[in-house]
Amino acid sequence: MKILVAVKRVIDYNVQIRVKEDGSGIVTENVKMSTNPPDDNAIEEAVKIKEAGKATEVIAITVGEEKSQETVRKALAVGADRGIHVKADGIIEPLAVSKILQKIVEKEKPDLVFMGKQAIDDDCNQTGQMLSALLDWPQATFASKIDVKDGKLEVTREIDEGLETIEVNTPAIVTCDLRLNEPRYASLPNIMKAKKKPIEQINASDLGVDISSKIQQIKVEEPPKRQAGIKVSSVAELVQKLKNEAKVI
Amino acid sequence: MAVLLIVEHNNKELKAFTLNAATAASQIDGEVHALVIGNNCTDAAKAASELPVVKKVIQVEAAHYENFIAENFAPVILKLAENYSHIVCSANTFGKNLMPRIAAKLDTSQISDIIKVVSKDTFIRPIYAGNAFATVKSNDAKKCVTIRPTSFDPCDNSGGSAPIENADAGDEFTTTKFIKREEIKSDRPELGTARIVVSGGRGMQNGDNFKLITAVADKLNAAIGASRAAVDAGYISNDHQVGQTGKVVVPDLYIAVGISGAIQHLAGMKESKVIVAINKDGEAPIFSVADYGLEADLFEALPQFLEELNKLNTIQK
Ligand SMILES: Cc1cc2nc3c(=O)[nH]c(=O)nc-3n(C[C@H](O)[C@H](O)[C@H](O)COP(=O)(O)OP(=O)(O)OC[C@H]3O[C@@H](n4cnc5c(N)ncnc54)[C@H](O)[C@@H]3O)c2cc1C
């Protein structure tokens, strides 16, 4: 069984982002970048399945500018076997990414495609579902537990009401929640070894899919700031304020 | 052209956020048609027909719609799509799972989680965990939009009498099978729509201590929330998580107890009308969004809080 895992390079989750003054976007110069956190869970799960002897190959793929290769390299350092970097600049919408991934899936013929359930930059939560639509595959989204069975997966999904369990036949798409597993850190020897693993480079423009933007970003602005509040000195004062000032209890 | 609203329901009743999505749909265009896909869902279709903003209900029935599997829903929606300019539903786990499956087939770039309708093609949506708002314009002929329920008021749920039409069911998608749903039932108000939310974080130390939160929530008729750290540590189940990767809540009163206030948590609660933070670390970032901050040990503050509430003659319901 072959598992393709899609990873995205995003601004690190610890960074307090800044909006550009001209409203054209977010400041990315000199900002720490890293792998989209739930994509780390996706890689970890694929590697674990391989270690359990249930998969033969884990391929990490990213779509993005030159530097996004770093995310593939990091995936290789924690156990992916080889990488693919589809080069494309600028904002690539989830629909375009899913079309690119569809082309790669047709070529690589994986049994499973894993990725994070949402990217923490655009917060779209679309790519996995879109890819499964394009391929007409089952989709197991927001996964917090995966059991690999013969030709099938049993997946526990986190939904608003609690948990849902579904069974999907392979080939299938799984989008991963942060609770799926605890991603490992890359050891130094593995980081060195990863440097020798192959990363195939492909130009998005060579794949014959339309990846032009269909959504125009008109402006990006800071959300309204909250008025600074006060500190109360006791619980009694807090309850009194809630009752008589805020009038919410 | 009209707007197609995908109704979320349990075959009997509408899910609360359908009313918020209906409001958003009606702001895009006055002609809103509600699509009810389910199994023995006549009651739900009837409830949808009573929403005054809905002009027509389309009901689609089949046994394989019982469990709301997106792979089964998508073909039905795609078949109806040609009559509509917009397809709309809530950006909760139901809509997040379903809508991209439709958008991709329509070759539409979906617009997720809007908080405002600017015009028929332009919307505002939060990005980066709500640390920026993007105004975006869709250039697609057909638009697929999910809406953040808490950013739109629920529409009236009675007084309407839209006609109900039936439409054909689609084929079953046989390679995805529903096994079970573990819903956590409680008599409390739902987290997403509660007037008051009391949330606990890692500072609670264990699941048992959440009974301190429960006691206060009982008194206030509040829902219970949690940080991701509290859920990850197993103190409480995942459906309580508030934040970027959990639920967004906008109650009149949000009480954060033993929660530091990471941006991913703030993403889910910072629009609340009044925020209270109880934390022993005076520097915790949660205080920067709190209207009332109490720097205290929660294990002393929560029992005192309950005691003070007990002294009140009346508490709003
Ligand atoms: C991609 C991504 C998505 C995420 N999504 C979410 C999300 O949706 N929701 C979410 O909540 N988090 C999310 N997180 C996690 C987030 O970054 C924080 O780790 C998390 O919110 C911390 O939870 P906490 O505040 O309970 O714990 P901590 O940060 O550990 O804070 C505990 C607080 O409790 C206080 N405390 C301890 N003991 C006491 C006491 N006795 N009395 C009073 N106060 C006390 C401490 O002073 C501290 O401020 C996400 C992270 C990532 C990377």
Structural overview:
The complex is a heterodimer of chains A (249) and B (317). Chain A is an alpha/beta fold. Chain A is built from six helices and 13 strands. Chain A has one domain: Rossmann fold (3-Layer(aba) Sandwich). In chain A, a hairpin with a 2-residue loop joins strand 7 and strand 8. The radius of gyration of chain A is 21 Å and the shape is globular. With 317 residues, chain B is of the alpha/beta class. Chain B folds into two domains: 165 residues, Rossmann fold, CATH 3.40.50.620; 116 residues, Rossmann fold (3-Layer(aba) Sandwich). In chain B, helix 3 crosses helix 4 and helix 5 runs parallel beside helix 8. Classes of the chains: A alpha/beta (249), B alpha/beta (317). At the A-B interface, helix 3, helix 4, strand 7, strand 8 and strand 9 of A face helix 3, helix 4, strand 5, strand 7 and strand 8 of B. Strand 9 of chain A pairs antiparallel with strand 11 of chain B, so a sheet runs across the interface. The structure holds flavin-adenine dinucleotide (FAD). Flavin-adenine dinucleotide sits at the interface of chains B and A.
Q: Quick recap of the structure?
A:
The complex is a heterodimer of chains A (249) and B (317). By secondary structure, chain A is α/β, with parallel strands linked by helices.
Per DSSP, what share of the residues of chain A sits in E-state strands of 2 or more residues? 25-35%
Low-confidence stretches of chain A: none
Which blocks of ≥5 consecutive residues of chain B have pLDDT under 50?
Answer: none
| Main sheet: strands, sense, barrel of chain B | 7 strands, parallel
Share in helix of chain B: 10-25%
CATH architecture call of chain A: 3-Layer(aba) Sandwich
Alpha-carbon distance between the two ends of chain B:
42 Å
Largest interface: A-B, 83 and 92 residues
Please state how the strands of the largest beta sheet of chain A are arranged side by side.
Answer: 9-8-7-10-6-1-4-5-11
Query: Which class of the largest domain in chain B in CATH terms?
Result: Alpha Beta
CATH superfamily of the largest domain in chain B: HUPs
- Helix-and-strand structural type of chain B: alpha/beta
Gyration radius over CA of chain A: 21 Å
Please write the string of helix (H) and strand (E) elements of chain B.
EHEHEHEHEEEEEEEEHEHEHEEH
